[in-house]
Design brief:
single chain; 724 residues; alpha/beta; 30-stranded mixed beta sheet; six-stranded mixed beta sheet; 18 helices
């Protein structure tokens, strides 16, 4: 007669096992006899085994059973994954305190201890899979009675751990950035630790976990690993103190020779071919492969890292780093970055301590074999020419090109270079990254448009800097108006600033260079084509502002702006200081408000913090509209209510030119890949080149951009028609 396990039997189980024996029963005498013939049990009574009603005892064979074993439904079915096909059941394995879900196969597992195995799992040819009762699965917490020295920190952004953060399962790069950056707020830092600690139990009652439809084969060691649904692991070397987040929609994979220790792997991510990660968080839809080493670092969503070594870094989403000689250390990168082969980023040879840092905004792209010194800082979308940069850099010009002129020389900077000569790369940026974003659930909000509040505020800084340097240039040139303004009001006066601004407007064909002493330590920088850069920055700022206002009208179903709409926009909250928070652009004031709520404990969980980010994102378009209007007012040094028809018409004309120029420059910069004779010399004829590269007329992005440019021009025509 079948005897169901009830309260009496469950009293002998460890506490956590009682959660899994509901509906289970003890073995029948017949089943015990079958199992005795082909298995070894440390309990001769077999009372430590619970099974489902539909349990086939013949499917458990060659196993050594210790402690407790709970088995779900077990039928003679075949589980398949690619070319691997195995019959459900438990075979030739050591099992100690294990819960097995429905119709899983465990075959040739030398040591399986303290684990809950999900349903329809395949565990094949594994040396060890075990968990301790104090497992933390990569989260930076402490269990009951553990000393502080046991805590696992991730030392991002600084080798001396001055910006260390604690990993947790739901961590985004936004969370990591706030924790790493705002170190001066001690109360906030304490609250981050408390919130993380309170997200997990301190009890010493943990057990390892595999979700449903997991496949693990030919693997050496899994210890203290929490493995999500539909994970595929083959040939891994060591997986220890980790969480692998995975689902049927976003399945994660781990391949041959991989070693993951003390960290979190995000949904839909893949780690292959001898890659190593230690003390890490890897975001969603990432790849780590071909011997890459990720140490003490956090890698944002949608990133790919191959071959290279990355130490002590916080890297925002959409990072690309593919080459064996690349090296990146103690940096915070704003994402959408690409590190070329041979880059040496973060040399400490200019300091007696390993505490140097580097920060780069979005779109950082150093060329082949670049090397940099700590401490350096780069604005967004800076392109670095191949070379050795012996001194610290402070590049405040977004979309610029920086070139080395050798040791003991100023560097050369062409501000707004990408707008002048590489518009295709700028224009394609948003579409390219949106296409690469394979996340099904987008917890981390990511701004992929190159023209966004973070880059526009940098353009404002660059414009001010060019005007200030031009003022110095005019004084040194003995310009009459400049000398008079300096004499009466001083070198940093608003009057001299206005003289320089007027000069840039009135001398648009002037050819001269500026000297920016603050751009490089000791030797400064030569600013090339400052008038053209000034004009281009202003045009792009107008383009952003008008495009944003056009998008506002489109959302509201308006044909154009009216005085009432202008009044509504003027009454919206205006934010002029923006922060790239892990890829999402958030006003600094909103962050300050969040910090106060965290410290006051009205926000007391990471889920609540993420909800706050989402609230900011929901209002982001309105924030941008108010900022766009403010940009126009600053460009013309007056309130929009004082704009004349001449000013409005000038804006329309300028933005229409910018809109056309962006499309034309994009087409021209792309055409270089098709009509340059050196590019063509490896092909026998144009037909072969088109077969290999494709035709520019068939370029989907170019076609899409043409349509968008035509649509925007129509919107520009009527945007201010009610105000003129």
């Amino acid at each position: 007669m079948v005897q169901l396990s009830n309260e009496a039997n469950s009293e002998t189980l460890p506490q956590f096992y009682t959660n899994f024996i509901g509906g289970k029963r003890s073995l029948t005498s017949d089943e015990i006899e079958i199992l005795k013939k082909s298995n070894k049990n440390s309990d001769p009574t077999w009372k430590n085994v619970w099974v489902s009603c539909d349990f086939d005892a013949s499917l458990v064979s060659g196993c050594e059973i210790h402690g407790f074993l709970v088995i779900g439904s077990l039928s003679k079915i075949t589980l398949k994954y690619h070319d691997l096909a195995l019959t459900a059941g438990l075979y030739d394995s050591y099992l100690e305190n294990v819960v097995v879900g429905d119709n899983s196969v465990i075959r040739n597992v030398k040591y399986l201890s303290n684990y809950k195995i999900g349903s329809r799992n395949i565990l094949f040819n594994i040396q060890e899979i075990s968990a301790t009762n104090h497992s933390k699965f990569g989260n930076g917490i402490l269990k009951e009675g553990e000393p502080e020295k046991n805590r696992i920190w991730i030392g991002v952004g600084n080798e001396n751990d001055g910006r260390s953060v604690l990993a947790f399962e739901k961590m985004t790069t936004a969370d990591a950035y706030l924790w790493a950056k705002y170190r001066d707020d001690e109360c906030l830092q304490r609250r981050f630790i408390e919130i993380t600690e309170n997200s997990f139990s301190k009890e010493l009652n943990t057990y390892g976990l595999t979700g449903d439809d997991v496949v693990i084969k030919n693997t050496t060691l899994l210890k203290d690993a929490k493995i999500g649904d539909s994970t595929y692991i083959k040939g891994a070397f060591k997986l220890k103190n980790i969480t692998i987040l995975s689902s049927e929609e976003e399945s994660s994979q781990i391949g041959e020779g991989v070693e993951l220790v003390n960290g979190i792997l995000g949904y839909g991510s893949r780690v292959f071919y001898q890659a190593v990660a230690v003390r890490f968080v890897i975001g969603r839809n990432c790849q780590l492969k071909y011997g890459a080493r990720l140490l003490n670092s956090i890698l944002g969503d949608n990133s790919t890292v191959s071959c290279c070594e990355i130490l002590n870094n916080l890297i925002f989403p959409f990072h690309e780093q593919h080459h064996n000689s690349s090296f990146l250390i103690a940096s915070i990168l704003g994402g959408q970055s690409n590190i070329a082969s041979g880059a040496t980023i973060g040399s400490n040879h200019n300091s007696r301590a390993a505490d140097g840092e580097m920060y780069a905004g979005r779109g950082f792209w150093p060329g082949l074999c670049c090397d940099f010194k700590h401490n350096s800082r780069f604005a967004s979308f800076v392109l670095i020419s191949k070379g050795t940069y012996q001194n610290e850099l402070n590049i405040v010009y977004p979309f610029s090109l920086v070139a080395s002129n050798g040791s003991y020389q100023p560097v050369t900077i062409i501000p707004a270079y990408s707008f002048m000569y590489n518009m295709y790369a700028v224009a394609r940026n948003k579409a390219k990254f949106e296409k690469r974003d394979k996340r099904k659930i987008k917890v981390q909000q990511i701004e992929t448009d190159p023209l966004a509040p973070d880059t526009l505020q940098e353009i404002e800084v660059a414009l001010r800097r060019i005007i200030e340097l031009t003022a110095e240039y005019l004084v040194n040139l003995k310009n009459k108006k400049a000398l008079e303004a300096k004499k009466n009001y001083g070198l940093r006066s608003q009057e001299l600033y206005q003289v320089a601004k007027d000069f840039l407007h009135q001398n648009q064909n002037a050819s001269f260079t500026l000297n920016d002493r603050e751009a490089q330590k000791k030797y400064g920088a030569i600013i090339v084509k400052p008038v053209k850069a000034y004009k281009m920055y202003r045009r792009i700022a107008k383009f952003f502002a008008v495009r944003t206002l056009c998008e506002y009208c489109e959302r509201k179903g308006l044909s154009g702006l009216t005085k009432d709409e202008i009044k509504k926009i003027s009454e919206m909250p205006l934010f002029t200081e923006w922060v790239n928070v892990g890829g999402q652009i958030i006003p600094q004031i909103r962050l300050d408000q969040l910090f106060e709520m965290i410290k006051e404990q009205s926000v007391d969980s990471w889920d609540s913090i993420h909800d706050y980010y989402n609230g900011c994102q929901a209002q982001y378009e309105d924030y941008k509209v108010a900022y766009a209007l403010n940009i126009l007012e600053k460009l013309y040094s007056r309130d929009i209510s004082e704009f004349t028809p001449k000013i409005f018409n000038g804006i329309i004309e300028d933005v229409k030119i910018a809109n056309k120029d962006i499309y034309d420059a994009t087409l021209i910069s792309r055409m270089k890949d098709f009509d340059d004779e050196f590019r063509m010399q490896t092909f026998r004829n144009a037909r072969e080149m088109n077969a290999v590269l494709g035709s520019i007329t068939d370029n989907e992005f170019i076609q899409s951009m043409k349509s968008q440019a035509e649509s925007l021009e129509k919107q520009i025509e009527v945007l201010f028609s009610n105000l003129i």
